[in-house]
Every structure is written in C-alpha cells, then in structure tokens.
C-alpha cells in the first residue's frame, strides 16, 4: 500500500494510531513469547548437592574462585566464596564471613549448568562419562581454558571432582578434596 493510499484510508492521526497500536502488539507478542512461568523452568541434573557443598565447593572456591578467575562477576561459571567473589544479594566482603548457603547453592547451580546435557548423561550413567564433561576437560587442560591446566589426571583435585561426579561416598570425596585444598592454604 502506498503512503498516499494509507493516508486517505486512515488519515494522518489514524495512521499514527495504527503505528502505535502495531508497535505495542508487536512488543507484547515478543514479551509473551519470551516469558516462562515457574512451571516452565527445567530442573537440572547433578550429583549429590550435600557432597558438593561440603567438599567440592570449598575446593573450587580456593582453586578456581579467586577474584582474577571464576570469582569475577563477568565469568559464565561464577564461583562465590569467603575468599573471592561474594554473592550480590548479600552484604559480605571478600575475606570476611564464611561462604553462605546462598553462595554454596549458586556454586552448585553454576557447575551443574555449565554443560547441562552432558551432566544429565553423567547422572544417568552414575558418573561413568564424567571425563567427557567440560568441567573436567578444562580443569585437565584438554579444552581451552583461560586459567590453563589446573589439575593432573588422578591428582587430589581431579579425584575430588571426579569422586563427586562418580557418586563416590562422602568420606572418599571429602578426603580427596581436603588433600587438594591443603597446598592452596
């Protein structure tokens, strides 16, 4: 339709109103298509959260959660903790109060959602494909990682992460994680 024909059909005010209404409907359409209610959220698969928060998170906080690494707000996998980045919804400062429950839960979510499809496979096969995860391969230096290689295969840090991913008992995972933390103190 040419401009003159539109002006004759709708008039200038009508044309302006049509434009505003069209833009509004378009905005509503885009907005409605991107909204997801609580029932639309997907749960993520991940090994034992209690073992993670008690043993694995403290290791990751010390090894990976420094302010120059995954303890930066701009990192896709953010690690919060007492000695690094603090959760923005809390008033803690780095080096102050112990890592909070919210920070532990956020660390768990960050690690579990780093590679969700592969993590689902790890959960389904009880950890037998854990060595295929991005988390493991970046830590081992097998995938490009800005921090470089941070664990060697079968060293305490590697066993800490793999133990949790492999559904090992809490005592076994804790022993590996404690051994991995000791040189970082």
TrEMBL record:
Q: Which domain of life is it from?
A: Bacteria
- What is this protein's record name? Lipoprotein
Species per Swiss-Prot/TrEMBL record: Polyangium spumosum
Task: Please spell out the taxonomic lineage of the organism that makes this protein.
Answer: Bacteria, Pseudomonadati, Myxococcota, Polyangia, Polyangiales
